[in-house]
Structure formats: structure tokens, C-alpha cells
Write a structure and sequence with these properties.
This protein is an all-alpha fold. 76% of the residues lie in helices and 0% in strands. The chain has two domains: 1-65; 71-144, lambda repressor-like DNA-binding domains (434 Repressor (Amino-terminal Domain), Orthogonal Bundle). Helix 2 packs across helix 4 (104-112) and helix 3 crosses helix 4 (104-112).
Length: 145
């Protein structure tokens, strides 16, 4: 005859396992749903990152298109305008030079009137002088990448 204590202990264990299974089943279902949702979100993030990368490359290509020398025809130049535009944008000479496609020293020389831009540089400057602060910062960010 089995010991009543052993039988009671086994029955308690069986009932406890049954209760635990009933309590954890909904959590297992939620975990599976969460995992599939996380996987879908990861796929979505990867797709968006690819799209952002593509758009950045396109924008960078659009910005980097070298202006033609003939685009500089009719563009007037003044050293004061260079300094005023750079101050209006609130950027350093190095950053302004990056936007125009010249060095920082070239910008300083233009501002001081020691030199004048060549035709291609004048065309590049003409493209930059009309942009706003946000656009300038966006272009600089794209150039840094």
C-alpha cells in the first residue's frame, strides 16, 4: 500500500504543474506575438535605413554637381557679401568653404579682397549665397558623411 504522504505530494505537484502551465500559456503566446512584431519592426527599420541611405546619396550627388563656368556670367562679387553671407548663416570659414568647394584660406582671402573667385568658384558661390541656415547645415551634414 502506497504511503499517503507520497501520493499527496505527487498530486500536489501534478496540480501545481497544471496551474503553472495554465498561467504561462498566455505569456508564451504573447511572447511569440512580440517576437514576430519585433522581427517585423527590424525589417521595417532596415528598409527605412536603406531608403535614407539612398536619398542621402542622391542629395549628396545633387549638391556636388559642379557648376558650369558659364553659370557665373552676370554674377557680381564683393568681399563684403562673402563675409555678410557667412555671418548670416552663422558658420565658420571652413564650413563656408566646404559649401562652396574651396578652402578656408580662400574664403578669408575673398573676404579681405586679396583675391577673387574664378568663374567656376563664382558659380559655386552663387549657388550657395541664396540658401538659408537650415539648408546650409543640412548640406554640411551630408558633406561630412
Amino acid at each position: 500500500m502506497p504511503n499517503i504522504a507520497v501520493v499527496l505530494k505527487e498530486e500536489i505537484q501534478r496540480l501545481a504543474r497544471k496551474e503553472i502551465r495554465a498561467a504561462t500559456l498566455p505569456m508564451k503566446k504573447h511572447r511569440a506575438e512580440d517576437r514576430s512584431a519585433i522581427a517585423a519592426l527590424k525589417r521595417q527599420v532596415a528598409a527605412l535605413e536603406r531608403e535614407i541611405s539612398f536619398l542621402r546619396k542622391q542629395e549628396k550627388r545633387r549638391i556636388e554637381v559642379a557648376p558650369e563656368a558659364k553659370e557665373a556670367e552676370g554674377v557680381r562679387f564683393s568681399p563684403k557679401w562673402i563675409a555678410a553671407d557667412r555671418k548670416r548663416l552663422g558658420i565658420s570659414a571652413r564650413d563656408y568653404g566646404d559649401l562652396v568647394g574651396v578652402s578656408m584660406l580662400t574664403i578669408y582671402n575673398w573676404e579681405k579682397g586679396k583675391s577673387k573667385p574664378r568663374a567656376k568658384q563664382l558659380a559655386a558661390w552663387a549657388k550657395v549665397r541664396g540658401i538659408g541656415k537650415r539648408e546650409a547645415l543640412k548640406r554640411l551634414e551630408l558633406l561630412d558623411q
